[in-house]
Design goal:
By secondary structure, this protein is an alpha+beta fold. The chain folds into two domains: 235 residues, Nucleotidyltransferase, domain 5 (2-Layer Sandwich), CATH 3.30.420; 212 residues, Nucleotidyltransferase, domain 5. It contains 19 helices and 24 strands. The longest helix is centred in the C-terminal third of the chain and has 25 residues. It catalyses: D-xylulose + ATP = D-xylulose 5-phosphate + ADP + H(+). One of its GO terms (molecular function) is D-xylulokinase activity. Catalyzes the phosphorylation of D-xylulose to D-xylulose 5-phosphate.
Length: 482
């Protein structure tokens, strides 16, 4: 038996599978996010531990015999968060999360140093880890001076389980401190940002065994002795493992809270100026690139809150896909990453008429999110990255209208997986299987069965091309309103 643990912003999801990847059971534990000041987003690492304990108790109660046969645990984790440990391994302050924007000035200052992009092959985004530590050095120097190790969120769980301070290549790639091409810490980037190599955790590959579950913790959790803990990786990389996107040409588009267009690569490639993320994959010798927008279904959820109508209700009356509407929406509710790297820009509607109602706005919202993902597609293509096979995943794919719209905007066939497990928790379990058994990731991390392939609408592609060109004029207009 193998356990995959996916640590997200809202909590932890645990998936128990057997060696043939048959799902035995799943459970979840919730976490709260604190926002003590505007733009701040924090969590207490102990809350992650509590969430995992709660979910594990559910699995043990439902599947005691299978839990008793557990051999390995793997992880997926939210990226970029800064967990700060002192020399004794105590947490110094709440974790500063990926969606925290307090360090936007520090990010801009680091990004202005040519050495940072040269070393890490990526733009220094405000959500990355390095600017968080730069902010800490200025605003909480007494904490900064005590930092012995900086861990990513899932790496704190590895530390809790094994006592080792490690991170994997895919998570380290989102710190701005990793030489992504060489898969090692960049001494140049560390020095430029005021950090020391000794404050970095040891680097391992995502399918590597970190250690054995601490005997006292195994007894406390009611788990068998000798369970091996595998490093796992960053959430998007592990999601790619879950959907079998390991080779060049394979990838996915995710309509989740944020939006992601990810393409696997067999070699390293980067174009930092495009604001495309170029990161190490969670398996050895592989990389991936992705464009990220900060508010995908989050934009629709925002409209739902202010109209008092559910997302399903807002989209349910749209009927068959037709040419784009006259209302335009820029989904920059929390700023934007790809391609703008602009934490200060905010969203907006254009073309509103007194006759427009909630469903017109809903249509504009999902069109705007789809156009933003086309921005990501254009940025990926500019780096020479192509998608031959593209899965559509995430909560937004429950809307057939939205999937057909997105396929037409991207002019890209989109595969909808058949029902079943294929997300980050499965990817984490797959990494555990590879780490414990030594199996080849290419044989373990296969694509899910495809329930349907949604094709672009040839009759609507020209209209959406024109609408996209007009939509791109929104960003320059909104940018001057900052």
């Amino acid at each position: 038996m193998f356990l995959g643990i996916d640590l997200g912003t809202s909590g932890a999801r645990l998936l128990l599978v057997d060696g043939a990847q048959r799902v035995i059971g799943a459970a979840e534990g919730a976490c709260e996010v604190a926002h003590p000041h505007p733009g701040w987003s924090e969590q207490a690492p102990q809350d992650w531990v509590a969430a995992i304990r709660a979910a594990l108790a559910q699995l043990k109660a439902a599947h005691p015999a299978e839990i008793a046969a557990l051999q390995g645990i793997g992880f997926s984790g939210q990226m970029h968060g800064a967990v700060l440990l002192d020399a004794a391994g105590e947490v110094l302050r709440p974790c500063i999360l990926w969606n925290d924007t307090r360090s936007h000035l520090e990010a801009a200052a680091l990004d202005a140093m040519p050495v940072m992009r040269e070393a890490s092959a990526n733009v220094v985004f405000p959500g990355f880890t390095a600017p968080k530590l730069a902010w800490l050095g200025t605003h909480e120097p007494e904490v900064f001076d005590r930092v012995a190790t900086v861990l990513l969120p899932k790496d704190y769980l590895l530390f809790w389980m094994t006592g080792r301070r490690v991170t994997d290549m895919s998570d380290a790639a989102g710190t701005s401190w990793l030489d992504v091409a060489a898969r090692r810490w960049s001494l140049t980037a560390l020095e430029a940002s005021g950090m020391r190599p000794g404050q970095m955790p040891d680097l391992v590959e995502g399918s590597e065994v970190v250690g054995t579950l601490r005997p006292d913790l195994a007894a406390d959790l009611g788990l068998p002795a000798g369970v091996q803990v595998v490093a796992g990786g960053a959430d998007n990389a592990v999601s790619a493992c879950g959907v079998g996107a390991l080779k060049a040409g394979q990838g996915f588009v995710s309509l989740g809270t944020s939006g992601v267009l990810l393409a696997a690569r067999d070699d390293f490639g980067a174009d930092p100026g495009s604001a495309v993320h170029s990161f190490c994959h969670a398996v050895p010798g592989r990389w991936y690139q992705m464009g990220v927008i900060l508010a995908a279904t989050d934009s629709l959820n925002w409209l739902s809150r202010i109209t008092g109508r559910s997302p399903a209700d807002l989209l349910g009356g749209l009927g068959a896909l037709e040419a784009p509407g006259r209302v335009r929406f820029a989904p920059y509710l929390s700023g934007e990453r790809t391609p703008h790297n602009d934490s200060a820009v905010r969203g907006g509607f254009a073309g509103l008429d007194i006759a427009h109602g909630p469903q017109d706005l809903a249509r504009a919202v999902i069109e705007g999110v789809s156009f933003a993902l086309r921005d990501c597609q254009q940025a990926l293509m500019a780096t020479g990255t192509a998608l031959d096979q593209c899965l559509a995943i995430g909560g937004g794919t429950r809307s057939r209208y939205w999937v057909e719209l997105l396929a037409s905007v991207l002019n890209q066939p989109l595969d909808l997986p058949a029902k079943g497990e294929f997300g980050a928790a499965l990817g984490a379990a797959r990494l555990a299987i590879c780490g414990v058994t030594g199996a080849d990731p290419d044989t373990v991390m296969t694509r899910p069965g495809i329930g349907e392939t949604v094709m672009p609408r040839p009759d609507l592609i020209p209209a959406y091309d024109d609408a996209y060109a007009a939509w791109r004029e929104l960003y320059p207009s909104l940018r001057v309103l900052k």
